[in-house]
User: What shape does this take?
Amino acid sequence: MVKISPAEITPEHIFLNRRRFMAAAGMVAGSVALAACSPATLNRSEAPAANVEPALTVALGPDQLPAALAHAEPTAGAAQDELGDPLNTFHEITNYNNFYEFSTNKEAVASEAANFKPYPWQVAVTGLVNKPMTLSIEDIYRRYPQEERIYRLRCVEAWSMVIPWIGFPIAALLNDVEPKPEAKYVKFITVYRPEEMRGQRSAILEWPYQEGLRLDEAMHPLAILATGMYGKPLTNQQGAPVRLVVPWKYGFKSIKSVVTIELTDTIPATTWNTAAPHEYGFYANVNPQVDHPRWSQASERRIGETGRRDTLMFNGYEDEVAYLYEGMDLTRSF
Ligand code: MTE
Assistant: This one.
C-alpha cells in the first residue's frame, strides 16, 4: 500500500511542463491562444501550482500529438532537479545510451537506432487482469495526461544523469486493467525486431529484453511510463515510443521500447538477472552500501562532470520508497 499521496511528493519531484507542452502543441496547431505562450516567455514561477492535477488539454487530437511534439524545440520546465543539480543536456542524454538491441557501444547507439520505426506501436496489457487492453501510442496520449518528471538515472555501471522525462504514472494504466487479487508482479517485454535491431541477431543477451517489478513497486507514484524527454517524444536510442522509468532502481530496470506489460503471480525472469544472477538481482535498488562484485557502488560519475559524487540510497528517493522494503535484507535481496 502506498503511504504517501502524490500531492506530498509533488513539490519535490514533479515539475509540470504543461504550459510548454501546450505551447509546443499550439504552435503546430496554429492555435492563437496557445502560440502566444511561447517557450521563451515561460519560466518556472509560471508553472502551475505543484499540487494541481496535471489536466493536459491540448488543442490537438491525440493522433496529431506525437507529430506535433516532434517539431517542438527541446525544452524542460526547470533547469535542475529537486536537489539543485543541473539537468544533463539533450545531447548528453541522447548520445550516451545503453540499448544492447542496437549496440554495446554507448556512443554508437544513436546512429545504430536511427532507422528503427517506433510508429505505429501497440502495447498489450495482459495477464492476471479483469480488463486486458491493447493501446496504441495515440490511445496512451488520449487516456493519460502527460507530465514532466525530472529524475536522476543511476546506471549500475556507476554513471548517472539528470533527465527531464515526459510520461505518466504506470499506476494509472494498471488501475484501468484492474489487476486480479492474485497478481503480484508486473513483467515488461521489449519489442523483438532483429531485422531492425542488429544486437538481437547475436546472443549477447537473451532476447527479447525483459524486466519486472513487484506490483506495489509498479504502483508507486514515482514509477512512470515515459513517452518523451525535454518536451519531445523519446528518441529511438532512449526507447521510443514508450519505456519504463523507475528512478530509485539501477537503470537496467528501466526497460525500453515496451510492447507487453503482463501481470503475473510468479516473479518474472529478468534479462540481466538471467545473464549474471550473482551480479544483477531482481530488485536492483540503488544502494551505495551493496557493491557490485566487480566494482564499488558507493560513488558515481555524473555525465558532464569531472570527479565523482557520492551515490545516494535509493538514488535520493529514500523518503518516498524505503517503506516498500521494510524488513527486507537488502544485501540478499539486491
Ligand atoms: N532496455 C532495453 N530493451 N535494452 C537495453 O539494453 N539498457 C538498460 C535500460 N533499458 C537496456 C534497456 C540500461 S543498462 C540502462 S542504464 C538504461 O536503459 C539506459 O537508458 P538511457 O540510454 O536512456 O540512458
